[in-house]
């Protein structure tokens, strides 16, 4: 019922917690303030890793959906992973939008702008909210898994559009500074270390939360199955003809 062995999950939880504490120390005090943006730039250590995890989560959802659609690898496990990862993707996309808005206010002077990167990211957020709503629609489990898998693959088309939006449309958002189209990082020193450590810490957090959410989904399905079985048994008992002997004993 879990993706990881219990001992591995516990160890991962402690390592994740320690890495987030180290990230907070470097993000708040270890890394220097930016010469232009001052301390507002420190939001980058949350904004960029959260965006990376959103890409990763939706990529895992798309991969798991593809594996479910392929008859040779079709398994309920892939459907559960797709749903759990999509929930995390929506969570981290929301964090990305929130951190970006908090960062944009002191730097750009606005909380929100109709910028290509911002708009495509918001579209991504609502696309996967729709995907999660689709998973809540009652019906045949296999039919639900099929339509959700197809929806996940369609929604994933927006991920590369979000990433390359700053290259295709020159609007308010700056071009890629971590990796430009030639895969060259334009950040160095303690800032670079803190940023990459943030990516590592958030990746560990994603894996840990994915394992926990997968386990919760299995427990919920087990509870639903038991409730369904109980309802069927009660219905059968209610429809059973009354025993004449019991009727006579009751007189």
Helix content: over 70%
Number of helices: 8
Major sheet, described briefly?
A: none
Radius of gyration: 24 Å
N- to C-terminal distance: 52 Å
The H/E string reads: HHHHHHHH
Q: Structural class of the secondary structure composition? A: mainly alpha
- Principal-axes geometry comes out as globular
Strand content: under 5%
Mean pLDDT: 87
Number of strands: 0
User: Which residue ranges are poorly predicted, with pLDDT under 50 across at least 5 consecutive positions?
Assistant: none
Concise synopsis of the structure shown:
This protein is mostly helical and 251 residues long. The protein is built from 8 helices and no strands.
General description of the model:
- The termini are far apart.
- The radius of gyration is 24 Å and the shape is globular.
- The mean pLDDT is 87.
- The chain has helices at residues 6-30, 44-69, 76-108, 116-135, 141-155, 158-168, 189-239, 244-249.
- 75% of the residues lie in helices and 0% in strands.
- α2 (44-69) crosses α5, α2 (44-69) crosses α7 (189-239) and α4 (116-135) packs antiparallel against α6.
Question: Tags for this entry?
Answer:
single chain; 251 residues; mainly alpha; 75% helix; 0% strand
